[in-house]
Design a protein that fits this description.
Layout lengths: L6 E5 L10 H9 L3 E3 L10 H6 L9 H13 L6 E5 L1 H11 L5 E5 L12 H6 L1 H4 L8 E2 L3 H7 L6 H11 L3 E2 L1 H7 L21 E6 L7 H10 L7 E6 L12 H14 L3
């Protein structure tokens, strides 16, 4: 990897440890990029440590995470390409709208301000958080059954359980509460500058079988960018669920990202 290689900053979402990006980092390094995958503020270095100390990530909101990654970006020699999954995709969209990145890829990104009410499957996926209002200030873990519905519904039960055991960590409830209230708050942390004409290109990716962020959410997100002249593209994987970045089909998604970046001259 050359010293002037373009940085690729991977941003994980709720319930997945940043080390789950490992295979992506290896692939992108071989492709000539400089990949990094730091965790959200408070996330421990390993899955085991993160599970042992959930309070470290509790009560972290969208703005806290955005500023954390803005600080990471400030230390990089070049504006990075951002690749985020789920709420990590939302963070990537916000940072791109602030002109902090060369481009962004948002994979099954959580809803931003302006997106229509969520489908029932999305509400069921997030019920473990919303079932208790106090969870806004707590870190919440999923059971294997809850992970199966929210992430692993498009893979076998065996693979879903394996992914759960390998990668899941507690997640702060606050971002979900902030996103849910976004359309009622003029200054919501989930607001993205979708009208920015000077930002870099954006690719939205959706899994057609995703329960947590159904395709309708991603297509509604795409509509929010209709007033921007900047590049905004959409790719769909019809048979994939929310685990599409970590399950056995991750390489097809990663290759699509690399192909799109090449098309953008990046």
């Amino acid at each position: 990897m050359a010293g002037n290689a373009v940085p690729v900053l991977f941003i994980h979402g709720l319930w997945l440890h940043p080390s789950s990006w490992g295979p992506w980092e290896e692939l992108f390094e071989k492709a000539g990029y400089r990949p990094i995958a730091p965790g959200w503020p408070g996330v421990a270095e390993s899955v085991e440590l993160a599970r042992a100390n959930p309070d470290a990530i509790a009560d972290r909101g969208i703005d806290d995470v955005v500023e954390h990654y803005a600080g990471v970006i400030a230390e990089l020699p070049l504006p990075p390409i951002l690749i985020g999954h789920s709420f990590g995709g939302t963070i990537a969209e916000k940072l791109l709208g602030q002109n902090r990145a060369a481009a962004a890829i948002a994979i099954d990104a959580a809803q931003i301000k302006g997106v229509l009410p969520l489908p029932l499957s999305a509400l069921r996926s997030t019920f473990p958080v919303f079932s208790n209002p106090a969870n806004k200030h707590r870190a919440v873990s999923l059971t294997a059954e809850q992970f199966r519905f929210a992430f692993g519904n498009a893979v076998s039960a065996e693979e879903s359980d394996e992914l759960y055991e390998r990668w899941t960590i507690p997640a702060p409830g606050k971002p979900l509460f902030e996103a849910a209230a976004a359309n009622f708050s003029p200054h919501s942390p989930a607001k993205v500058d979708t009208g920015n004409d000077s930002r870099g290109p954006l690719l939205l990716i959706t899994g057609g079988r995703d329960h947590t962020v159904p395709g309708a959410v991603t297509r509604s997100t795409l509509k929010q960018y209709r007033h921007s002249t900047a590049v905004t593209d959409l790719r769909e994987f019809p048979d994939r669920g929310h685990s599409l970045t970590i399950d056995g089909g991750w390489r097809a998604v990663a290759d699509t990202c690399l192909e799109w970046l090449g098309q953008q001259g990046l």
